[in-house]
Structures are given as structure tokens and as C-alpha cells.
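Sequence decides. Consider this:

===
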Amino acid sequence: MQAQDILTDYRLMLLIRLFEERVDALFATGAMSGTSHLCAGQEASAVGAISALRPDDLIASNHRGHGHFLAKGGDPKRIMAELYGKATGYSGGRGGSQHMADFSIGFLGSNGITAGMVPVATGAALAQKLNRTGKVVAVFFGDGATGQGAFHEGLNIGAVWDLPIVYVCENNFYAMSTPITESFKVPEVSQRAVAYGIPGVTVDGNDYFAVREAMRLAVERARVGEGPTLIECETYRIFGHSKSDKCEYRPDAEEEAWFARDPLCLMSERLMRDFGVTQEQMDAMYAEVQAEVEEAARFAQGSADPDPATVAEGLFAQVG
């Protein structure tokens, strides 16, 4: 990759971080209602994985999906508007944080059901194979999702039919407040791939370069008909499970160790050390992205609420 391409991806990671921090602050002041699950701290897994895809490839997300959406090309203004419940949001203000999609950029959507998008993405991969589109599907989920039946059913079908899909587990070591050591006997999520006869690999999810390389190899396999790969990205969320979670269950020493390996810091250090990017360039980019996030917030705040007369639009109901 060229330095400019890597710098572009770093900008995406920075956009995700500042967007999530702004959302957290807006919830804290009561400007937003409902709930949200923020992905700050997991930027490298989202951007690193998606950067290895083609623009026409597809992705599916989970309840912690703002970063995936932004990394795939989602509009920060429309995402922010949806969080505000505004008519200009991706779901017209009806879906909120967990229920947005944009098929035009290959974002199949997120889902509030744990592992809910795994079978959806597997079905999308089947469609790509049957229609011979040459496209690959990537689906993101957390460690908690790997205990759901939908996860196992999806991997089994994907493996048996050699579907063009990559299963990406963002293992942040906690399913809500339950540590992974109390949930699974195997030490690594990627070991579960053995049961389905597909490759499984564990990577440093805070290292953009490690994630991108693992994803590149998995995408190559999938695109030539060799089937799925299960990639486990070990990472760590900065905020709680949701906006009301204070993370009192996480040891201070553990948090300090992970925060010292902040993916944005690791990436910026690499850019300046190996690619000649200056601190002045980094500072200018920070100011630019911060202004973009503030503009997204202003856009959302100034947007109209949904018209009550449209309440029945977009609904499906079966009668009789």
C-alpha cells in the first residue's frame, strides 16, 4: 500500500473515534435518547478488515456497528441524524443506532440481535455464489455471538457450501460484563473453525496492518471459491457495553494495559516512523475530522423530525 492509502485509512479510524466520542457526549447531556453501543477502541479491526475488500464487496454488522458503517463509506451526517431520530437519518429516524443499512455502498445493515446478521450475511454470500458476481461478504460480530446457535449454523452452511464469506469476530473479551474466560473453554475463538473444516486465525485487533493482512488472505481464498475463514481480532472497547455501563467489572490494570495499546496511537506512530507523516499533518487531520463530526451533529440537530403521517411507511404486515 502507498502511504496516502494508509493515511486515508487512519483518517477513517480517527473519524470513527471522534464520532463515537461525540455520540457519547451527546447521550451524556440528554441530547439523544434510547441507547447506543460504541466501538471506540476497535477502529483497527473495522478499518483494517474493510480496507482489504473491494468497493463492491458487501459487509454486515452488529449492534456495535457505527464504525463498520463509516469504514464502508457511510455518511456521518445521516448516521448522526438516525441516532437523533430525524427524518434525514438512514432509517428515517425509525431504526436508531442498531438498525441502519445502505445497500448502495454494500452495507447490508446492523442488527440488535446477537449474531443476528451471521445467517443474513451467509445468505448474501450464497447469492453471490449462485449469481457468480465475484463479490465477497464480510460479517462482523463479537465474542458473545459465538455462543449463539445462529453463529454455528452460519459457519456450518458457509463451510459446507464453500461460500465467499469471511466471518470476523471482534473479541473484546467481554459479552456485556461476562469475561470470555467464563464463557468458553477454548482459549481462542478462532479454534472453533476446526469444527467446520475452515481456516481460523487470531490476530492483534488493535494492529491495522495485522488485521488487513489476515483479511487480505481470507478474501483471496473466498473470491476464488475456497470458502470461508474465521478471523478473530483481539481488541478492547474503551467505553462500556452500552451507554449506561460504567465498566466496573473490568480490572484497572487490564484497562491500563489495553489503553496503552490504543489502535490510533499505534497507527499514528507507524505512520510517522515508517511513512514520513509529520506531526503537523496529524494535527491538521485531527482538526479536519473534528470539524466534520461537529458538522454532522449540527446537521442532525437541525434536521426535521419524521412526519407522523408517514408512520405506516416501510412497514410489512400480514393480514389473515
About this structure: Strands lie at 58-60, 137-142, 165-171, 174-175, 178-179, 200-204, 229-234. The two ends are 58 Å apart (CA to CA). The domain at 3-310 is CATH 3.40.50.970 (Rossmann fold).
